[in-house]
Amino acid sequence: MQEFDMNETKGEENRSLLPKSLRRVRNVRVARSYSTWPGLTVATLFFVWWTCSVISGLVGSRGPTLDMNGDKYYDFDEVGSIVGEDQDVIGFDPRGVGATTPRADCFSYGGTYNGVGDDQARGDYHRTLFAATGQGIGLANSSSTALRYLDARAKTIAKLCAEKDSLSGDNSIFRHAGTPSVARDMISIIDAWDEWTSNIEESLDFDSADLDPSDEKESYDNSQEAGLETKSKLLYWGFSYGTLLGSTFAAMFPDRVGRLVLDGVVDADHYVAPIWRESQRDADKVWSSFFKYCQEVKSACQFYRVNDQIVDIEERFKSVIENLKENPISLVLKDTQTPFLMTYSDVKLLIFGALYAPIQGFASVAQLLDNLERSLGDWFEFTPTPLSYDLKPVCEHAQPRWSYPNDAQRAILCSDKKYPLNHTFPEIESMFKDLEAQSTFADAWMSLMIQCSGYNIESIDPPMQWDNHPSHRQKPIKTAFPLLYISNSADPVTPLIAGVKMATKFVDAGFFEQQSEGHCTIAAKSRCTIEKIRAYFREGKVPDPPKLKGKGTDFLDGDWEICPTNEWPWHEYQPSAQISNEIDAAEIGRIDAWGSIRDAFAQIDIWGARGSKKFEIVL
């Protein structure tokens, strides 16, 4: 495990996320193919941690596109406030992502970047050009030919990736980027960490005076009394895709499970299928709540009109959208004098993004719809021009390596599929119709689903065989410590049923539901949820497994613990601004920390499903 210069990987703004006295950055070299280990071919993982003490835990990603340098949700101070400030918090870039090398990049070929690797600036320019040629297609149902063109474009990129893979040969990262390999990498991180901290007092380079000895001793003693001996085991908090990674780890290494919180749960059975048919079953529930909350707060919701009932708001929304389908809005963005056409697809993607984070997103959507209904086109001309429209970083070749877009999501999601998306267009069209029958946002979700069409790069010698995959195992898996699954009542892409179902795949796995809308429980503050997660990590308290009724085949027919939420759209919970005898300062700190992570998560393009949007409404 080697330390390296932060300046090579992080900008000043992101480096400030961790206290200087406690910030640490490391590389870990791992086998690119564990079946040939030991060998000379390696991958180099990048990770950052917040150092405080005696117990360490990994923070899992929310999607394969996210990286430690570029995504601000890795504010380890805030995570530490929730799980315990006496615990180390580690985050890492999975294979192909961010500062981990080699990068999964289908567009960059030949040349060098600062003397190393491919010409990423040239590749990014080609990526931008290809993206621009597809901007006019819109969402899958925006025209009679849109889905066909989206499928053709996906197959084109798949062909490009195949050529890059062929040039790289046995060293290709595309052949070794699957989730089982990432899960095995987590073992490497744990082992490297244990070795490095074997003599913690000599290894940690910070002044012990920075810590209150009495606080440190009390926390350590409490951990020991609770039986939290987790050396050589994984403590992990995974969101969205991170839950699939956590479930995979638990299936591969059940004896190395220390604590696993899996939040916003991916259904392993559907994940390996060509199309995730059930992932949006709760999306329309989230969107329906917009009209309910808007009507409840009345004039605080900018799209509300006097005496509106819920149905009135819904009907006016439908009218606005139908009008936009026929009449796109011509704009000139004032900050750069860039001509721009706002379409139905643009607005639909913005609304879909708001479903992930209703606390922040619904107010913005209300303002957007209000201006559309009033035909206030001039308002939109003051929205910022997308950064992707600026060629200066490309021309100056000034961006750090990790900041360039990559194809890690495609490499991971597509190579993970047991049943590839190698179908005829009529078959794909039929799949899309099935999605449309489930959700009105199927058109937005299809932009993610279609990317695996024609992708034929197979994982070579993955460290987990199909028979051991959690979607294939017939009997519940016994782990060294029970897992904890958590779901929202209505999540746009990881429905409640998936959390219940996955909890039944592991012996004694706990489960609880947070009564809120949005993607992952981090979408809203809940004192109940915060304390349950903290108690799980620190005291080993596991909520009860879900108790299914009847034959146990209906995963929504059962009983489980439920946590109420303390906030909802247009009703943010701010206990630090209130006087309350029921909440002590420490709990207020944890609630505020949760809110900070919530706000950061709201800015992230999870799964890349919103990546085709052309602009962002900033309010």
TrEMBL record:
Span of domain Peptidase S33 tripeptidyl aminopeptidase-like C-terminal: 441-544
Domain of life the protein comes from: Eukaryota
Regions that span the bilayer: 37-59
Keyword terms, alphabetized: Hydrolase, Membrane, Transmembrane, Transmembrane helix
GO molecular function: hydrolase activity
Pfam families (alphabetical): Abhydrolase_4 (PF08386)
Annotated family: Belongs to the peptidase S33 family.
The protein's name in its UniProt record: Peptidase S33 tripeptidyl aminopeptidase-like C-terminal domain-containing protein
Organism: Sclerotinia sclerotiorum (strain ATCC 18683 / 1980 / Ss-1)
